[in-house]
Amino acid sequence: MERYSQEQTDGEARVIGELATGRDGVNYQPGGECWATAFAPDESRFAWSCGFRKVVIIPWNRYKNCMQSQDNYDPDGYAISAEHVSIDAGFTVTSLAFGTGTPEKELIPKQRGYWTRFDFTKDLILATGHTNGRIRIWDPYTGKLLLELTDHVQPVLALSFAPDGSLRLVSGSKDHTIKVWDMSDDGNMFKTMREHTGPVRSLSWSPDSKMLCSTGDKQKVFLWCMESFRMLRRLSGHYNDVLDCSFSPDGAMLATASADTRVIVWDTSTGEQLRVLNHTKPATSIIYMSGANGAYVRGVTFSPNGCHISTVCQDGYLRFWNLMSEEDEAEVTGTTLEGEAMLNCTFSPVGGAVAVGHGSGNAVFYLAPTMVPSLLHLSRMTIRRSIGDVASSKNILLPHTLRPYLQYKHW
Predict the structure, then answer these.
(1) Domains present along the chain, CATH in parentheses
(2) Where's the SOCS box domain (predicted)?
(3) 3-class DSSP string for the chain
């Protein structure tokens, strides 16, 4: 872990740490990319796919406290002594995700009449997707291989665990399918969804685990009901392949990043476009419907308080967008080394940092903008989390001016 202490400048994101491979970011070999990074939901661990089959897991809850210092001590003077775990995954890693299970003491006792290979009471597991279509499940504390899932026939580009502790895993592949796996039933694959006509590039669960967003080639953005496994709606508006997606913390919004150089923020209840964040000037047009360009957006992630969106773009910039502002301009930007490619970005679960994976295999941590949300916004998020989409319900009487606010049409 390299650490930085340079001064923050207005409008520029500060680098606060880096996990480095030592490889050249310009002349790197294929297979050495950092295609995925992931934080454990409780921030206890951070997983880094550093290329050439290797995954490193560090104790993030310890390392994050000393990333801005020049030594191995946290702000209280205690040495950072926790060990990292290094895994040779066996195959090139194209995706990864942490899953959190329900603690054993909270489980309803289950009588099983058959032997299982996988202990479904694990509190934390790590899944890795590979170029040969396999998915491997690991113990993040020891690096032990727990289970292997084999049903995809092409690279697994996206993995995501349900946030409700059920250990349901969804996987998206170049074989055009989404598969749903039940870790509590020994990794049984019980559903395949086939609406995509090209590679599935990203998957994201809604915070209440009732919806799933999948994105892929040919402008595809689908919202699925994860109780009936039927498509709720298709979101149309992108001009090119859609590479990433992220739900807001209350599930009311969805952000999608595309090769058309734009990020679109959607209302998940109606499919309406709420915001369009352009990464080029002038804004893109239908010309980006085919072919590559130098400013396609590779990654997008919501901040934990729902006030910011972070994006990484092919032009070499990390951008932070302030949704509380009426201006659709990036509030803060961060740059990469010359020739490096930013491949993905992930907000830490409690905020404060964003991890960015690079083409050289490096993972760089940037200091995220801080903001104290308004009481109105906190109230809105609380209502949406506890009740759902009250604004679209005809059975709930709301003041005329409050309804657009609850639908995120006003900030």
Answers:
(1) 2-374 (2.130.10.10)
(2) 367-411
(3) CEECCCCCECCECCEEEEECCCCCCCCCCCCCCCCCEEECCCCCCEEEEEECCEEEEECHHHHHHHCCCCCCECCCCCECCCCCEEEECCCCEEEEEEECECCHHHCCCCCCCCCCCCCCCCCCEEEEEECCCEEEEECCCCCCEEEEEECCCCCEEEEEECCCCECEEEEEECCCCEEEEEHHHCCEEEEEECCCCCCEEEEEECCCCCEEEEEECCCEEEEEECCCCEEEEECCCCCCCEEEEEECCCCCEEEEEECCCEEEEEECCCCCEEEEEECCCCCCCHHHHCCCCCCCEEEEEECCCCCEEEEEECCCEEEEEECCCCCCCEEEEEECCCCCCEEEEEECCCCCEEEEEECCCCEEEEECCCCCCCHHHHHHHHHHHHCCCCCCCCCCCCCCCHHHHHCCCCC
